Amino acid sequence: MKLKWLIIGNDGVGKTSLSSIIEEKDLNKKKSLDFQYRDKTIEAPEGFIENSYLNNALIMVGQNQAKVVVFMLDDEKDNHIPPNFAKTFTRKTITIINKIDLYDKEDMDRLREIKDSIGSEIGFEISLKTGEGVDKLKKYIEEIEDERCFL
Ligand SMILES: Nc1nc2c(ncn2[C@@H]2O[C@H](COP(=O)(O)OP(=O)(O)O)[C@@H](O)[C@H]2O)c(=O)[nH]1
Ligand SMILES: [Mg+2]
C-alpha cells in the first residue's frame, strides 16, 4: 500500500482543505465521523483525538499507513492532542497552525505553545484562506511526495 498523509485535528480546523492541496483536487468538505481515505491522505475524525481512549487507533493508523502524521491547530476549539503525542509515532510528524489570517499576537503565542507541546519535528503557520505560508508547506509536501514511500 502507498503510505499516506494522516491528518489529525478538530472539526473545522481545515483538514479537508489541506487534503485538497495534497490531492491536488477540490474535495467535498462534508463532515464525517469515520476516517476518510483518499489517494494520498487519510483524514481522521475529531472524535479520535477528543476521546483519549481512541488515541490508540490514531497511533495504529499512523504507524501502519502513514508516511507523515499531520497535527492541525486553530483557535476555535480546545486542544485535545496530548503532550508529546507526536513522539509516539515513528513517522515524520508536523504541526500546522492554520487560519493565521484570524489571529492576533496573543492567539499566536497560545497556539505556538500548544504546537510545541505536541512535540512534532516541524511546524508550519499558514492560512489556507489567504495562502500565507502555504508555498513553504507545498514545497515540503512536494519533497515528501518525491521520496515515494511504499510499504
Ligand atoms: N478564515 C479561514 N478559514 C479557513 C481556513 N482554512 C479553512 N478554512 C475554512 O474552515 C472551514 C472548515 O474547513 P475544512 O477543511 O472542512 O475543515 P475540517 O473539518 O478539518 O475538514 C471551511 O469553511 C474552510 O473554508 C483559513 O486558513 N482561514
Ligand atoms: Mg473534513
TrEMBL record:
Q: Where are the transmembrane segments?
A: none
Q: Tell me which positions the record assigns to the signal sequence.
A: none
Q: Which InterPro entries match?
A: EutP_PduV (IPR012381), P-loop_NTPase (IPR027417)
Q: A GO molecular function for this record? A: ATP binding
Biological process (GO) annotations held by this record are: biogenic amine metabolic process
Classify the source by domain of life: Bacteria
> In this record, what's one Pfam family?
PduV-EutP
Q: Which SUPFAM superfamilies match?
A: P-loop containing nucleoside triphosphate hydrolases
What name appears for this protein in its UniProt entry?
Ethanolamine utilization protein EutP
